Structures are given as C-alpha cells and as structure tokens.
Amino acid sequence: MQNPQLPPNPSAGAPDRYERGLEKLREIDGAAGQAVVDSLADIAPDFARYLIEFPFGDIYARPGLSTRDREIAVVAALAALGHAQPQLGVHIQAALNVGVTREEIIEILMMMSVYAGFPAALNALSTARTAFRAHAGEAHRAAPVSDTSAGGV
Question: What region holds the Carboxymuconolactone decarboxylase-like domain (predicted)?
Fold first, then answer.
C-alpha cells in the first residue's frame, strides 16, 4: 500500500509557530488576545502556548480564507455550540476588528437559530450585545478627545 501524498506544509520556511501565532493573534485581537493567554500563565502555561501555536500559528495562518472569513466561521461555530459565551464575545470583537459589521454578525447569529436552535441564537445575541458595547467603548477610548466629527459615541 502506498503512502498518500501529503500536501505541502504552509508552515515550512515560516517563522516559529509560536511567533507566527502571536503575530496573528495581535492582528486579530490586539491586547485582548494577549490578556487571554496571560490569564492562563499561572495555571496552564503549556495550554497557553498550544492556544497560540495551533489555532493562530497553524490554522489562522493558512492560505485559502481571509482572516475576516475565518472570524465569520468562528463566530458561527461558537454561537452554534450555545455554551461558549466568553469565547464568542472575544471572537465577536475580533470579527469587528477585522472588518465584519455588526449587521453581518446579527445575520450570522440569526442563521444559527435555524441550525443550532433558538436558545443558542438567543444566548449568542445576548453575548453580541455585550461585545458590541465593549467594542464601542474601546473605540471611544481610542478616539482623540478633540474629534467630534463623528457626533460622539
């Protein structure tokens, strides 16, 4: 029996998985992603490393989907689970960071009512409300004080 031909490794010749993952995490979440990793340092530092290396260093760094499209997929998956509100909130904010609109997120969550049920969609919508407020607060804090052209937030 022949060994199946493996596809080329997209990580070959790339920087270390951990460094690549940290770079991708910063691109998506800024300081929020690092805070999640830091929160694991005292209890499971190896898990924190895996959290950076595998999802961000390997999967998010693959070609084929934009970071924006990957966040849409993650928001849908976490919403469908129905019990991952903390992670869903982080990824809703990440989706906003990479260009997904609030309206698109609401539509994604409404789709989940069909495939994951109304309770999962309701939980996700509640999480979205909180994430939208948090994201708006961060944008407000980041805006220059003298900038009133947007009408204030």
Answer: 45-128
Whole-angstrom distance, CA of residue 153 vs CA of residue 151: 7
Q: Is 148 left (phi over 0), alpha (psi -120 to 50) or beta?
A: alpha
12 burial class (0-12, 13-18, 19+ CB within 10 angstroms)? exposed
95 neighbors 72 (Cβ within 8 angstroms): yes
**Rounded Cα distance, 86 and 41, in Å:** 18
Instruction: Please report the domains of the chain, with CATH numbers, ordered by start residue.
Output: 16-62 (no CATH), 64-143 (1.20.1290.10)
> Between vectors from CA 22 to CA 73 and to CA 80, what angle results, nearest 5°?
20
Please give the model's pTM, rounded to 2 decimal places.
0.79
pLDDT by residue (tens digit) across 34-86? 888 899 999 999 999 999 999 999 999 999 999 999 999 999 999 999 999 99
Cα–Cα dist 82/43, whole Å: 26
